[in-house]
Amino acid sequence: MKERKAIVLSGLGGLVLPYARPFLAIALALLVSAGLILARGMNPITAYAAMLRGAFGSVAALANTGVRATPLLLGGLGVALGFKAGLLNVGAEGQIYAGGIAATAVGIFPLPVPPWLHLLLAVLAGFVGGALWGLIPAYLRAYRGVSEIVVTLMLNYVGIQLASFLVQEYAPLGEQGVFYPQSRLILPSAQLPILIKGTSLHSGIVLGLALGVFLHFVLRYTNFGFRTRMTGENPEAARYAGVNVPRQIFIVLLVACGLGGLAGTGEVIGLKLRLCERNTEGTRIGGRQGHQIRYGSQNGAERDV
Fold this sequence. Notes:
- The longest helix is centred in the N-terminal third of the chain and has 28 residues, at 12-39.
- With 305 residues, this protein is mainly alpha-helical.
- The N and C termini lie far apart (61 Å).
- It folds into 2 domains: 1-57, no CATH class; 58-272, no CATH class.
- The chain contains 11 helices and no strands.
């Protein structure tokens, strides 16, 4: 059998190609979509122009794009971190709910602390809530060899039902006398600041971007990042090099789940300002469906755009 030859680009080509791949993928997707639009007798340029105007055509459009991108960014960081360690975390939806529950539990109660500390505690609670939600899949994957795909996926439904229970009128977080189950309102001291007045764009987007840069440097330039990448690329070689692979998997999955918890935190204390019982629609970060999140209900306390 003939051995396949790999195409190696030396010099500038080898440097440019890895960074060009995402843009090539986008260009290919746009070309395929343009073909489908043409097949329907429509003008793809008109369609793409309308899409760009809707996303970037005004300050309100830009703000709305940032609001919708924030949970995708934070949850996507958790999924990406797992990928680096060879893990497929498809439980971001459950982690979003876990983080949202924890942030709500801190954000609805007055604390004898300054407002900035109350906000910080709510954010930290969201991260810890997501990380704690990942304890079971992390332990089972690291020390028992159980697939994290199955466990994290099943925990999504547990998270949905747990949130639904906690926002009922008789539950600890529930608001009394409301038509749709939801928690009490997040106190102003625990709400994320708005970046652009008159919009819903909150500082969760800044947190997501900062964490993205931070994770890049951690994965590229630290011992933890090196052990993570080695574990993902070749676990056997990592063991031979002295890496405690089970412990590395355990820690990485906990951190990844914590990032998923932050995605829920931003939705609760930055956008909806309360935890709501969600409808049955919605999607899962890291699953077969798209990276899109909807949290809460139409009658929640969402900040107006």
